[in-house]
Structures are given as C-alpha cells and as structure tokens.
Amino acid sequence: MRGGALGDFVLTLPVLMALRERFPTARLEVLAPPALGPLAVAAGLADGSRSLDARPMASFFAEGAELDDDWARWFGESSIVVSFLRDPRRVLERNLARCGLVRFIPGPWRVQSQPGLHASLQIFEALRPLGIAGPLSPLRLPLGGGEPRRHWLAVHPGSGSAAKNWPLEQWQSLLAELMRTTRWHVHLICGEADRERTRVLRASLPAARHTVADSLPLPELARELSLCEALIGHDSGVTHLAAAMSVPLVVLWGATHFDTWRPLSSRMQVLRGLHRITPQQVIGALRRLCPHAC
What we know:
By secondary structure, this protein is of the alpha/beta class. The chain has 2 domains: 6-130, Rossmann fold; 152-293, Glycogen Phosphorylase B (Rossmann fold), CATH 3.40.50. 34% of the residues lie in helices and 15% in strands. It is built from 11 helices and 10 strands. It has helices at 6-22, 37-42, 69-76, 91-98, 119-124, 168-181, 195-202, 218-226, 237-244, 258-261, 279-289, and strands spanning 29-32, 48-51, 80-83, 103-106, 152-155, 185-190, 210-214, 230-234, 249-252, 268-271. Strands 7-6-5-8-9-10 form a 6-stranded parallel beta sheet, sandwiched between helices. The radius of gyration is 21 Å and the shape is elongated.
C-alpha cells in the first residue's frame, strides 16, 4: 500500500522486487494512486493493482465504519499487508484486522532527509520484519521499447513543485541553442502540471525537430523514455522513472536534500544551484554525458 507521487512510487519498487524474490509463488498486489499501480504490473513486479482513490477505501480510515464486503474480503484473503500509508492512530490497521488480516507491517509514510541515507533505503527497512535486508539491487524496469533513437533527447521542463523548476526563460534559451548548434530532436515530456510551460516552449521549436508526450500512461511513458539517448529534467518523478529505465540524465537540482532524493543512476550529470545554472552549463553536461550525440 503506497500513496504519494511518481517519484515516491518508483523508489518503493525495490520493495516489490524483494517481495517477489522472497515469495516467488505468492500473488502480489499493489494498492496505490490509480496512475501508479499499472506501472508495477506492466514491469512484472505485481500481479494486479487497485486504486487507493476508490470510494470503498475511504471507510478503512474511519473508526468503526461499515466496510465494503468486496474490499474486506480482498484484504482478509491476504497473508501480509505492507503499508506506507499514514495511519497515526492505527485506524487502518485495526480495520484490516477486522477483515481477518493475518499480518500488518507498517513502513514509513514520510521519508526523512538525512545525510548519506537515501529514501529507497529508508523505505526498504519496512521489510526487515520479514527477514529481508539490503543491499538493494539496482532498479531496472523491463519496459524498454528497443534501441534508443539517434539524437533523441527527452526534456521534462516541469515537476511537482514550481520551486523545483528551472526558470522558463532559461529553458527557452537552452532549446534555442540546442536547435542552433546540435542535431538533437527534442521529445518534450508533459503532464497536466507542465502543460502551459510545454506550450510556451514548443511554440518556438521547429515542427520537424520536436515531439510531445502528453500525459501518457506510465508504462507507455517509460517505453518512450527508453527510446531517448538522454533526459534533461528536474528533481521529479519523471527523472526517477528515466533512471529506472537506464536513461542517462542531466539533472537541474534545486533545494531538495540530494543525499536522500537523488536519482539512482550511474550515468548522471547533476547541476546544483537551480537559479544560477546557465544554458551553456546544461549543454556542457550533455556533451560530457553523450559526446557521440552532440
């Protein structure tokens, strides 16, 4: 059971990998926001998913509530529930016990920023009661669409927070310079929160030199990312997903605690001080990452 946004979910996927390895014959299901669960299923890390936003789920957070029969049966048939949901008064835990659940294991619903301690390690600690401990295997999702297209560059100009975003005028300058001095084709990654920024950026791009991936289902987005030779993005869920697809990264990093939230990538150029980064620095990082493509 996992709430939160895409980045939180991607960093929780190693838990599913470990459970799959520890219990190879068990049916493993995910309860998560509706856009996220299908990613785990498509990657073969879960056998099914249900939506955390489904109306019957609300009653499980209310003391003494009448519980939906189908959902109560689903929980009651489970041997173990590992939960990363906030439940300070243990109401959810008690309601699941009413369903006949055998074992409830609470994990951290909020990751703490600590020097040298990555979020994925904190999340993975939830499995210690099952005798499962690190080190973590690298997360590599088997969702690739084939060999990357030559000179295709994924660009994600947004994030879940405006404070994490590089200024729009800097993105405009960067893309203009890429069009002028390189052979890159820009593949703009766009979600609902990024739509206006993307509209502004694509207005100045040649039609033949850019495409847009707008609000794709996550398994499809993962495949699209795998077809790109690199990604330029912020501290965002899309960047974490690209790292899980082994896409080389240029990351424009803001004030978030880096030790805790850095993407888990071995091919990454990180530029710090978000509002001091120049387009020339980004292009330099891209050239270091992909010298053959620039």
